[in-house]
Design goal:
about 180 residues, alpha+beta, about 25% helix, five-stranded mixed beta sheet, 4 helices
């Protein structure tokens, strides 16, 4: 029972965080020698999936990439998933807000009052916010509300950046986080 429970939880976390039970991938030929993994015609593909699998509970579109998350005190290379929080009930149901102690170092001043737990708001991503896992927030030395910059390469090789605010620090979900 214990082994089966661990296996079930790992499968649920993996399919929810990473990809799902079915992952549609494709390649977009930008030059004769380059083919980045991009999917086009997403609405048409979603329709095909719904027709083929009418009992599918969730069919979601995630934007994926690889890049750097940069703060004024650190940098982390990470897989970046763009999500639509209105479609991500499964993901948001398994995520929990990390306690402050998981990503902020305690003050060395014994007389200082204990810091208050910040308000963690996964829904804040609707306003262009970013959710970091506790280990990422710790390496970046950021707290909820702090600004970070995302830096990533486009399919055509250009480098883009965007400034975002940390809206939540999530507890780790295993190796995928």
């Amino acid at each position: 029972s214990l082994t089966q429970g661990i296996s079930d939880n790992m499968l649920k976390a993996t399919t929810t965080v990473s990809s799902g039970h079915i992952n549609i991938g494709g390649f977009y030929k930008t030059t004769p020698t380059n083919a980045p993994p991009l999917v086009t015609n997403v609405a048409e593909l979603k329709k095909i999936v719904h027709e083929a699998l009418p009992d599918a509970v969730r069919v979601i579109d995630r934007q994926r990439g690889w890049g750097k998350v940069i703060s004024d005190q650190g940098t982390v290379q990470a897989g970046i998933n763009g999500i639509d929080v209105d479609e991500e009930s499964g993901l948001l149901n398994i995520m929990t807000c990390a306690p402050l102690a998981d990503y902020k170092e305690a003050s060395k001043d014994k007389a200082a009052p204990a810091p208050k737990e910040p308000k963690c708001d996964f829904m804040g991503t609707k306003k262009g916010g970013i959710i970091l896992f506790a280990s990422q927030a710790k390496r970046l030395k950021v707290d909820i509300g702090d600004p970070v910059t995302l830096r990533a390469e486009t399919g055509r090789g250009q480098v883009n950046t965007i400034d975002m605010n940390v809206v939540a620090s999530a507890s780790e979900l295993g190796p995928l986080s």
